[in-house]
């Protein structure tokens, strides 16, 4: 089977020749092409080269395009971004709406692609990758989610207080961040690829399920529904860590195609929730174990995942974000462990 055929089958709950291998490759792609992550962040050509060379190296079953995947939309809205130190990736250093005593988004406009931001840069990189690979493998552009963008603009603690004291103002902010997501997701769709929506700030236990349901689900659902309706691309996914099993009903309501789970997750529960609704479960091993070559730990975690996933037709192998410091040899060893188990 090709990578695309394998993922299509898993999404439909049909038998495959092996469980797909879906590591999270972002800044690690810069290492694969021998470039600093900070340089790759600023070049569509290097970003595309990193994704293409990574797929040539690892033949993973889902390709993502992006490096500092949480920053681009927030940066376009006005969040300052620091250059990565040495081989680190850039990061948000300030929150433009943090100083407001009462949240006010009336002056905040939804940014368009232009020379002062990287909205078009990542789309151009994704288009090149999709042009070369979309007939062979699922290709996804990366985008910060509406809630996580809102956190970067307002600051986490302020935004949580706002949900209690001024919920209508939070929804007004989310209307603007989700509008950017809708426009950016449409650009990815027009480029021939799908979109991963990263909601790292919505992870449990950072926020409780009721805030997730009220302030994360409606806006991600809107983006996912638009992509599914307008574009013939793989289905979008909401990506986040934490105890995702506690949020399964919310993920189902969102319509996400993939949910992340580590080896401690309740797979029996996730199996019951996901097998009949077209959702993929990505079992994840700790990427720090892979980076340092802790193969006893990796085999133990992967073995537990394999046992829990026994008989699942919607399971794929994965790990958290592979670091720049992880060697190619280590990730290939992890790949071999996974494929030998499944």
Tag the structure with descriptive keywords:
342 residues, alpha/beta, TIM Barrel, four-stranded parallel sheet, globular
The number of distinct structural domains comes to 1
Lateral strand order in the biggest sheet: 1-10-9-8
- CATH topological fold name: TIM Barrel
Helical amount: 40-55%
Topology:
Blueprint: H1 3-12, E1 21-25, H2 28-32, H3 37-41, H4 44-58, E2 62-65, H5 72-77, E3 81-82, E4 91-92, H6 119-133, E5 138-144, H7 146-154, H8 156-165, H9 167-190, E6 194-198, H10 209-215, H11 217-230, E7 237-239, H12 248-254, E8 258-262, H13 267-274, E9 280-285, H14 287-292, H15 295-308, E10 315-322, H16 328-341
Parallel strand pairs: 1-10, 2-5, 5-6, 6-7, 8-9, 9-10
Antiparallel strand pairs: 3-4
Helix pairs in contact: 4-6, 6-9, 7-8, 7-9, 8-9, 9-11, 11-12, 15-16
How would you explain this protein's 3D organization?
Helix 6 crosses helix 9 (167-190). It is built from 16 helices and ten strands. It has one domain (3-341): TIM Barrel (Alpha-Beta Barrel). Helix 13 (267-274) links the parallel strand 8 and strand 9. The strands form three sheets. A four-stranded parallel sheet has the order 1-10-9-8. It has 342 residues and is of the alpha/beta class. The radius of gyration is 19 Å and the shape is globular. The longest helix has 24 residues, at 167-190.
């Amino acid at each position: 089977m090709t990578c695309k055929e394998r993922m299509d089958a898993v999404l439909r709950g049909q038998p495959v020749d092996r469980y797909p291998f879906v590591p999270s490759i972002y800044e690690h792609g810069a290492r694969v092409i021998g470039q600093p992550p900070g340089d790759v962040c600023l070049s569509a050509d290097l970003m595309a080269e990193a994704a293409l060379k990574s797929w040539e190296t690892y033949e993973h079953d889902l390709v993502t395009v992006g490096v500092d995947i949480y920053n681009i939309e927030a940066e376009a809205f006005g969040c300052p971004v620091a250059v990565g130190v040495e081989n680190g990736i850039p990061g948000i250093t300030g929150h433009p709406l943090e100083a407001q005593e009462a949240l006010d988004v009336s002056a905040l406009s939804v940014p368009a692609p232009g020379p002062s931001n990287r909205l078009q840069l990542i789309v151009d990189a994704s288009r090149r990758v999709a042009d070369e690979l979309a007939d062979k493998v699922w290709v996804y552009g990366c985008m910060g989610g509406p809630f996580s963008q809102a956190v970067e603009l307002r600051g986490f603690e302020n935004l949580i207080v706002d949900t209690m004291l001024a919920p209508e103002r939070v929804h007004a902010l989310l209307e603007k961040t989700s509008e950017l997501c809708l426009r950016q997701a449409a650009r990815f769709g027009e480029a021939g690829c799908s979109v991963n929506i990263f909601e790292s700030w919505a992870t449990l236990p950072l926020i409780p399920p009721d805030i997730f349901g009220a302030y994360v689900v409606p806006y991600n659902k809107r983006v996912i529904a638009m992509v599914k309706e307008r574009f013939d691309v793989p289905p979008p996914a909401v990506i986040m860590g934490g105890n995702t099993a506690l949020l399964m009903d919310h993920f189902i309501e969102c319509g996400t195609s993939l949910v992340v789970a580590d080896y401690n997750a309740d797979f029996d529960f996730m199996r019951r929730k996901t097998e009949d609704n077209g959702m993929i479960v990505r079992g994840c091993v700790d990427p720090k174990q892979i980076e340092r070559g802790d193969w006893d730990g990796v085999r133990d975690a992967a073995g537990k995942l394999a046992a829990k996933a026994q008989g699942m037709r919607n399971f794929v192998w994965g790990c958290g974000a592979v670091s720049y410091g992880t060697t190619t040899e280590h990730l290939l060893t992890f790949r071999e462990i996974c494929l030998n188990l499944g």
